[in-house]
Amino acid sequence: MVLPASINAHTAIQHEIARVAGLRDVHLAMEWFRSHEPELRDSQLEVAAIPAPPFGEGPRAEWLRLRFHELELEQVQVDAVGNVLGVRPGSKTEETLVAVTAHLDTVFAAGTPLNVRREGDRLHGAGISDNGAGIVGLLALPSALRSAQIRNCAGLLFIGNVGEEGEGDLRGMRHIFCESPWKDLIGPTVVLDGATTDTVVTQALGSRRFQVTITGPGGHSWSDFGAPNPIVVLSRAIARFSRTQLPAEPKISANVGVISGGTSVNSIPESASMRVDIRSASQDEMERVERALREAVAEAVSEYPKRARNGSSKGISCEIQLIGCRPAAELDPGSRILHVIRAVDAHLGNRARLHRASTDANIPLSLGREAISIGAGGSGGGAHTLQEWYDPAERDLGLKRALLTVLTLAGVEK
Ligand SMILES: [Zn+2]
After folding, report:
1. How do residues 378-390 score in pLDDT, each as one tens digit?
2. Do the Cβ atoms of 366 and 170 come closer than 8 Å?
3. Ligand 1 centroid to residue 259 C-alpha, Å
4. Which of 11, 49, 146, 352 is the most exposed place for a label (fewest CB within 10 A)?
Protein backbone atom coordinates (compact mmCIF):
# COMPACT_ATOMS: atom_id res chain seq x y z
CA MET A 1 0.00 0.00 0.00
CA VAL A 2 1.27 3.47 -0.88
CA LEU A 3 0.53 6.10 1.76
CA PRO A 4 0.17 9.78 0.91
CA ALA A 5 3.46 11.63 1.39
CA SER A 6 2.11 13.73 4.28
CA ILE A 7 1.14 10.60 6.27
CA ASN A 8 4.58 9.15 5.65
CA ALA A 9 6.16 12.40 6.77
CA HIS A 10 4.02 12.48 9.89
CA THR A 11 4.86 8.89 10.80
CA ALA A 12 8.56 9.57 10.27
CA ILE A 13 8.35 12.58 12.59
CA GLN A 14 6.53 10.54 15.25
CA HIS A 15 9.30 7.95 15.14
CA GLU A 16 11.94 10.66 15.34
CA ILE A 17 10.28 12.22 18.40
CA ALA A 18 10.07 8.84 20.12
CA ARG A 19 13.78 8.31 19.37
CA VAL A 20 14.77 11.79 20.63
CA ALA A 21 12.65 11.49 23.78
CA GLY A 22 14.12 8.03 24.43
CA LEU A 23 17.73 9.26 24.46
CA ARG A 24 19.23 9.14 27.93
CA ASP A 25 20.59 12.70 27.71
CA VAL A 26 17.26 14.10 26.58
CA HIS A 27 15.60 12.28 29.45
CA LEU A 28 18.07 13.97 31.83
CA ALA A 29 17.29 17.37 30.31
CA MET A 30 13.56 16.81 30.76
CA GLU A 31 14.13 15.80 34.39
CA TRP A 32 16.16 18.97 34.89
CA PHE A 33 13.03 21.14 34.49
CA ARG A 34 11.24 19.58 37.43
CA SER A 35 14.26 19.40 39.74
CA HIS A 36 15.18 23.04 39.06
CA GLU A 37 11.72 24.57 39.45
CA PRO A 38 12.79 26.59 42.55
CA GLU A 39 15.58 28.29 40.53
CA LEU A 40 13.23 28.90 37.58
CA ARG A 41 10.72 30.52 39.93
CA ASP A 42 13.43 32.77 41.44
CA SER A 43 14.59 33.82 37.96
CA GLN A 44 11.01 34.66 37.03
CA LEU A 45 10.55 36.86 40.11
CA GLU A 46 13.89 38.53 39.41
CA VAL A 47 13.30 39.33 35.74
CA ALA A 48 9.67 40.40 36.17
CA ALA A 49 10.78 42.93 38.81
CA ILE A 50 12.95 44.73 36.21
CA PRO A 51 10.71 47.27 34.44
CA ALA A 52 10.50 46.78 30.66
CA PRO A 53 8.03 49.36 29.31
CA PRO A 54 7.65 49.67 25.53
CA PHE A 55 10.89 51.22 24.17
CA GLY A 56 12.48 50.80 27.62
CA GLU A 57 13.66 47.18 27.60
CA GLY A 58 17.35 48.04 28.13
CA PRO A 59 17.81 47.01 31.79
CA ARG A 60 15.98 43.72 31.24
CA ALA A 61 18.02 43.07 28.09
CA GLU A 62 21.21 43.58 30.09
CA TRP A 63 19.99 41.09 32.72
CA LEU A 64 19.32 38.52 29.98
CA ARG A 65 22.69 39.17 28.30
CA LEU A 66 24.46 38.25 31.56
CA ARG A 67 22.36 35.07 31.90
CA PHE A 68 23.24 34.06 28.33
CA HIS A 69 26.93 34.53 29.20
CA GLU A 70 26.59 32.37 32.32
CA LEU A 71 25.01 29.66 30.18
CA GLU A 72 28.08 29.80 27.90
CA LEU A 73 26.06 30.61 24.81
CA GLU A 74 28.24 31.90 22.00
CA GLN A 75 28.12 35.20 20.08
CA VAL A 76 26.13 36.77 22.92
CA GLN A 77 25.15 40.27 21.86
CA VAL A 78 22.63 43.07 22.07
CA ASP A 79 21.75 44.14 18.52
CA ALA A 80 21.00 47.55 17.01
CA VAL A 81 17.39 47.68 18.25
CA GLY A 82 18.01 46.07 21.67
CA ASN A 83 17.32 42.36 21.03
CA VAL A 84 19.56 39.97 23.03
CA LEU A 85 20.97 37.01 21.10
CA GLY A 86 23.02 33.95 21.99
CA VAL A 87 23.89 30.80 20.04
CA ARG A 88 24.23 27.20 21.13
CA PRO A 89 26.25 25.89 18.18
CA GLY A 90 25.26 22.69 16.44
CA SER A 91 27.40 19.84 15.17
CA LYS A 92 26.22 20.49 11.59
CA THR A 93 27.28 24.04 10.82
CA GLU A 94 25.82 23.91 7.31
CA GLU A 95 22.24 23.68 8.63
CA THR A 96 20.00 26.69 9.25
CA LEU A 97 19.54 27.70 12.88
CA VAL A 98 16.43 26.94 14.92
CA ALA A 99 15.37 30.21 16.58
CA VAL A 100 13.72 30.28 20.02
CA THR A 101 12.39 33.69 21.02
CA ALA A 102 10.61 35.39 23.92
CA HIS A 103 9.66 39.05 24.10
CA LEU A 104 11.23 41.17 26.80
CA ASP A 105 8.77 44.06 26.87
CA THR A 106 5.60 44.56 28.89
CA VAL A 107 2.58 46.80 28.27
CA PHE A 108 3.23 48.72 31.49
CA ALA A 109 4.46 52.30 31.24
CA ALA A 110 7.63 53.41 33.04
CA GLY A 111 6.95 54.06 36.73
CA THR A 112 4.10 51.51 37.00
CA PRO A 113 4.38 49.67 40.36
CA LEU A 114 4.93 46.10 39.16
CA ASN A 115 4.53 44.66 42.68
CA VAL A 116 6.22 41.34 41.87
CA ARG A 117 5.96 38.84 44.72
CA ARG A 118 5.36 35.24 45.71
CA GLU A 119 2.28 34.21 47.69
CA GLY A 120 2.20 30.49 48.49
CA ASP A 121 2.75 28.55 45.28
CA ARG A 122 1.71 31.42 43.03
CA LEU A 123 3.71 34.30 41.63
CA HIS A 124 2.08 37.70 41.25
CA GLY A 125 2.89 40.98 39.56
CA ALA A 126 2.48 42.94 36.34
CA GLY A 127 4.15 40.99 33.54
CA ILE A 128 4.88 37.91 35.68
CA SER A 129 3.37 35.55 33.10
CA ASP A 130 3.44 37.70 29.91
CA ASN A 131 6.25 37.41 29.40
CA GLY A 132 8.05 36.36 32.61
CA ALA A 133 7.06 32.76 31.84
CA GLY A 134 8.39 32.97 28.27
CA ILE A 135 11.71 34.49 29.33
CA VAL A 136 12.17 31.74 31.94
CA GLY A 137 11.51 29.18 29.18
CA LEU A 138 14.13 30.92 27.02
CA LEU A 139 16.67 30.34 29.83
CA ALA A 140 15.47 26.90 30.92
CA LEU A 141 16.06 25.32 27.50
CA PRO A 142 19.78 26.14 27.18
CA SER A 143 20.25 25.40 30.91
CA ALA A 144 18.84 21.89 30.56
CA LEU A 145 20.70 21.26 27.27
CA ARG A 146 23.97 22.31 28.91
CA SER A 147 23.37 20.28 32.06
CA ALA A 148 22.58 17.13 30.05
CA GLN A 149 25.37 17.85 27.52
CA ILE A 150 23.05 17.30 24.56
CA ARG A 151 24.61 17.71 21.13
CA ASN A 152 22.11 19.41 18.84
CA CYS A 153 22.79 19.04 15.09
CA ALA A 154 21.53 22.42 13.85
CA GLY A 155 22.58 25.41 15.96
CA LEU A 156 20.04 27.03 18.27
CA LEU A 157 19.63 30.80 18.28
CA PHE A 158 18.08 32.12 21.51
CA ILE A 159 16.57 35.60 21.25
CA GLY A 160 15.07 37.89 23.88
CA ASN A 161 13.38 40.41 21.61
CA VAL A 162 12.05 43.90 22.10
CA GLY A 163 8.86 45.56 20.91
CA GLU A 164 6.18 42.86 20.89
CA GLU A 165 3.49 44.78 22.77
CA GLY A 166 1.32 47.65 21.49
CA GLU A 167 3.23 50.44 19.85
CA GLY A 168 6.38 48.34 19.82
CA ASP A 169 4.73 47.03 16.64
CA LEU A 170 6.93 43.88 16.50
CA ARG A 171 10.00 46.00 15.80
CA GLY A 172 12.38 43.50 17.43
CA MET A 173 11.29 40.60 15.21
CA ARG A 174 11.01 42.88 12.19
CA HIS A 175 14.68 43.81 12.67
CA ILE A 176 15.77 40.17 13.09
CA PHE A 177 13.95 38.92 9.98
CA CYS A 178 14.24 41.94 7.67
CA GLU A 179 17.54 43.66 8.46
CA SER A 180 19.87 41.72 10.74
CA PRO A 181 22.71 39.49 9.52
CA TRP A 182 20.81 36.55 11.08
CA LYS A 183 17.82 36.83 8.79
CA ASP A 184 18.98 34.28 6.23
CA LEU A 185 20.57 31.94 8.77
CA ILE A 186 17.31 31.14 10.59
CA GLY A 187 15.17 28.13 9.65
CA PRO A 188 12.13 27.41 11.85
CA THR A 189 11.19 29.70 14.76
CA VAL A 190 9.53 28.77 18.07
CA VAL A 191 8.11 31.77 19.98
CA LEU A 192 7.58 31.36 23.73
CA ASP A 193 4.86 33.71 24.93
CA GLY A 194 3.16 33.52 28.32
CA ALA A 195 1.96 30.39 30.13
CA THR A 196 -0.10 27.30 29.17
CA THR A 197 0.33 24.28 26.89
CA ASP A 198 -3.12 24.20 25.30
CA THR A 199 -2.61 26.21 22.12
CA VAL A 200 -0.38 26.47 19.08
CA VAL A 201 -0.61 29.84 17.35
CA THR A 202 -0.41 29.13 13.62
CA GLN A 203 -2.46 32.02 12.30
CA ALA A 204 -1.05 35.49 12.60
CA LEU A 205 -3.78 37.97 13.43
CA GLY A 206 -2.81 41.11 11.55
CA SER A 207 -3.66 44.68 12.40
CA ARG A 208 -3.42 48.05 10.74
CA ARG A 209 -3.83 51.17 12.85
CA PHE A 210 -4.41 54.70 11.68
CA GLN A 211 -4.50 58.21 13.02
CA VAL A 212 -6.92 60.31 10.95
CA THR A 213 -6.62 64.06 11.39
CA ILE A 214 -9.02 66.59 9.85
CA THR A 215 -7.95 70.23 9.92
CA GLY A 216 -9.73 73.48 9.04
CA PRO A 217 -9.38 77.23 9.55
CA GLY A 218 -11.08 77.25 12.97
CA GLY A 219 -12.64 80.42 14.33
CA HIS A 220 -15.28 81.97 16.53
CA SER A 221 -18.54 80.08 16.75
CA TRP A 222 -20.58 83.23 15.97
CA SER A 223 -18.45 85.62 13.98
CA ASP A 224 -16.79 82.89 11.85
CA PHE A 225 -19.91 80.79 11.49
CA GLY A 226 -19.86 79.03 8.16
CA ALA A 227 -16.23 77.95 8.39
CA PRO A 228 -16.00 74.16 7.98
CA ASN A 229 -15.98 72.24 11.24
CA PRO A 230 -13.44 69.35 11.44
CA ILE A 231 -15.42 67.60 14.19
CA VAL A 232 -18.49 67.47 11.94
CA VAL A 233 -16.40 66.22 9.00
CA LEU A 234 -14.80 63.56 11.18
CA SER A 235 -18.21 62.49 12.50
CA ARG A 236 -19.52 62.09 8.95
CA ALA A 237 -16.46 60.03 8.05
CA ILE A 238 -17.06 57.78 11.08
CA ALA A 239 -20.74 57.39 10.15
CA ARG A 240 -19.80 56.33 6.61
CA PHE A 241 -17.01 54.03 7.74
CA SER A 242 -19.26 52.33 10.29
CA ARG A 243 -21.50 51.14 7.44
CA THR A 244 -18.64 49.08 5.92
CA GLN A 245 -19.57 45.42 5.53
CA LEU A 246 -17.48 43.22 7.85
CA PRO A 247 -17.89 39.50 7.13
CA ALA A 248 -17.86 36.91 9.91
CA GLU A 249 -15.57 34.68 7.85
CA PRO A 250 -12.77 35.49 7.43
CA LYS A 251 -13.33 37.42 10.64
CA ILE A 252 -12.42 41.09 10.59
CA SER A 253 -12.91 43.80 13.18
CA ALA A 254 -12.78 47.58 12.89
CA ASN A 255 -12.75 49.91 15.87
CA VAL A 256 -12.69 53.67 16.33
CA GLY A 257 -10.92 53.66 19.68
CA VAL A 258 -10.07 57.31 20.36
CA ILE A 259 -11.47 60.62 19.12
CA SER A 260 -10.23 64.05 20.07
CA GLY A 261 -10.48 67.64 18.91
CA GLY A 262 -11.70 71.12 19.72
CA THR A 263 -10.78 73.63 22.40
CA SER A 264 -13.99 75.22 23.70
CA VAL A 265 -17.73 75.16 23.19
CA ASN A 266 -17.74 78.55 21.42
CA SER A 267 -14.83 77.85 19.06
CA ILE A 268 -14.94 76.22 15.66
CA PRO A 269 -12.21 73.57 16.09
CA GLU A 270 -9.04 73.77 14.03
CA SER A 271 -8.63 70.02 14.08
CA ALA A 272 -10.24 66.71 15.02
CA SER A 273 -8.70 63.26 14.99
CA MET A 274 -9.47 59.61 15.56
CA ARG A 275 -7.53 56.39 15.98
CA VAL A 276 -8.77 53.33 14.12
CA ASP A 277 -7.76 49.69 14.61
CA ILE A 278 -8.47 47.10 11.89
CA ARG A 279 -7.73 43.42 12.61
CA SER A 280 -7.97 40.18 10.69
CA ALA A 281 -6.04 37.07 9.80
CA SER A 282 -6.80 37.95 6.16
CA GLN A 283 -4.46 40.51 4.63
CA ASP A 284 -6.89 41.01 1.70
CA GLU A 285 -9.78 41.84 4.03
CA MET A 286 -7.65 44.29 6.01
CA GLU A 287 -6.67 46.05 2.79
CA ARG A 288 -10.32 46.20 1.65
CA VAL A 289 -11.44 47.78 4.96
CA GLU A 290 -8.52 50.20 4.86
CA ARG A 291 -9.70 51.34 1.41
CA ALA A 292 -13.22 51.79 2.87
CA LEU A 293 -11.77 53.96 5.65
CA ARG A 294 -9.85 56.11 3.16
CA GLU A 295 -12.95 56.47 0.94
CA ALA A 296 -15.16 57.40 3.91
CA VAL A 297 -12.76 60.14 4.95
CA ALA A 298 -12.29 61.41 1.38
CA GLU A 299 -16.05 61.55 0.78
CA ALA A 300 -16.71 63.38 4.06
CA VAL A 301 -14.02 65.91 3.20
CA SER A 302 -15.25 66.33 -0.39
CA GLU A 303 -18.67 67.45 0.83
CA TYR A 304 -17.02 70.69 1.83
CA PRO A 305 -15.92 73.25 -0.72
CA LYS A 306 -12.23 73.98 -0.89
CA ARG A 307 -13.05 77.62 -0.09
CA ALA A 308 -15.10 78.12 3.07
CA ARG A 309 -18.52 79.85 2.98
CA ASN A 310 -17.33 82.64 5.26
CA GLY A 311 -14.79 83.70 2.64
CA SER A 312 -11.78 82.12 4.33
CA SER A 313 -9.46 80.71 1.72
CA LYS A 314 -8.62 77.76 3.94
CA GLY A 315 -10.92 74.80 3.58
CA ILE A 316 -10.79 71.32 5.06
CA SER A 317 -7.83 69.02 4.70
CA CYS A 318 -7.08 65.59 6.02
CA GLU A 319 -4.14 63.35 6.82
CA ILE A 320 -4.23 59.60 7.33
CA GLN A 321 -1.18 58.26 9.11
CA LEU A 322 -0.34 54.58 9.56
CA ILE A 323 0.59 54.21 13.26
CA GLY A 324 0.73 50.40 13.51
CA CYS A 325 1.11 47.55 11.07
CA ARG A 326 1.22 43.86 11.93
CA PRO A 327 1.04 41.61 8.90
CA ALA A 328 -1.58 38.86 8.76
CA ALA A 329 -0.46 35.39 7.68
CA GLU A 330 -1.05 31.68 8.13
CA LEU A 331 1.30 28.74 8.61
CA ASP A 332 1.19 26.21 5.77
CA PRO A 333 -0.81 23.22 7.14
CA GLY A 334 1.78 20.91 5.54
CA SER A 335 4.74 22.59 7.23
CA ARG A 336 7.25 20.48 9.12
CA ILE A 337 7.05 22.62 12.28
CA LEU A 338 3.30 21.96 12.55
CA HIS A 339 3.79 18.20 12.10
CA VAL A 340 6.47 18.32 14.80
CA ILE A 341 4.47 20.18 17.47
CA ARG A 342 1.40 18.00 16.78
CA ALA A 343 3.49 14.85 17.14
CA VAL A 344 5.17 16.18 20.30
CA ASP A 345 1.74 16.86 21.79
CA ALA A 346 0.64 13.33 20.90
CA HIS A 347 3.81 11.92 22.48
CA LEU A 348 3.30 13.89 25.71
CA GLY A 349 -0.47 13.27 25.81
CA ASN A 350 -1.01 17.03 25.64
CA ARG A 351 -4.19 18.40 24.05
CA ALA A 352 -3.74 21.65 22.16
CA ARG A 353 -5.81 23.54 19.62
CA LEU A 354 -4.64 25.69 16.76
CA HIS A 355 -5.10 29.34 17.54
CA ARG A 356 -5.11 32.75 15.87
CA ALA A 357 -3.36 35.61 17.63
CA SER A 358 -1.05 38.55 17.16
CA THR A 359 2.40 37.43 18.32
CA ASP A 360 6.05 37.72 17.41
CA ALA A 361 5.40 34.85 14.94
CA ASN A 362 3.50 37.31 12.69
CA ILE A 363 6.76 38.53 11.20
CA PRO A 364 8.36 35.21 10.13
CA LEU A 365 4.94 33.85 9.06
CA SER A 366 4.29 36.90 6.87
CA LEU A 367 7.63 36.22 5.15
CA GLY A 368 6.61 32.65 4.38
CA ARG A 369 8.89 31.22 7.08
CA GLU A 370 7.95 28.37 9.44
CA ALA A 371 7.02 29.68 12.90
CA ILE A 372 4.69 28.91 15.80
CA SER A 373 3.97 30.63 19.10
CA ILE A 374 3.39 28.46 22.17
CA GLY A 375 3.15 29.01 25.92
CA ALA A 376 6.03 28.10 28.22
CA GLY A 377 3.93 25.96 30.58
CA GLY A 378 2.21 26.51 33.92
CA SER A 379 -0.89 28.68 34.03
CA GLY A 380 -1.55 32.37 34.33
CA GLY A 381 -4.20 35.05 34.23
CA GLY A 382 -4.85 38.77 34.30
CA ALA A 383 -2.43 39.45 31.45
CA HIS A 384 -1.91 43.17 30.76
CA THR A 385 -3.33 44.08 34.21
CA LEU A 386 -1.72 44.82 37.58
CA GLN A 387 -3.48 41.69 38.92
CA GLU A 388 -1.50 39.33 36.70
CA TRP A 389 -0.51 35.98 38.26
CA TYR A 390 1.37 32.83 37.34
CA ASP A 391 1.13 29.31 38.75
CA PRO A 392 4.18 27.14 37.95
CA ALA A 393 2.35 23.80 38.53
CA GLU A 394 3.17 21.57 35.52
CA ARG A 395 5.52 24.16 34.05
CA ASP A 396 7.73 21.19 33.18
CA LEU A 397 5.15 19.91 30.68
CA GLY A 398 5.42 23.17 28.73
CA LEU A 399 9.22 23.09 28.87
CA LYS A 400 9.41 19.42 27.80
CA ARG A 401 7.09 20.28 24.92
CA ALA A 402 9.29 23.18 23.84
CA LEU A 403 12.48 21.13 24.26
CA LEU A 404 11.25 18.15 22.24
CA THR A 405 9.96 20.46 19.52
CA VAL A 406 13.22 22.40 19.26
CA LEU A 407 15.38 19.26 19.40
CA THR A 408 13.32 17.46 16.77
CA LEU A 409 13.56 20.51 14.49
CA ALA A 410 17.31 20.78 15.07
CA GLY A 411 18.14 17.07 15.23
CA VAL A 412 20.15 15.40 18.01
CA GLU A 413 23.36 13.37 17.84
CA LYS A 414 22.95 9.90 19.28
ZN1 LIG B 1 3.24 38.29 25.35
Report:
1. 999 999 999 999 9
2. no
3. 27
4. 11
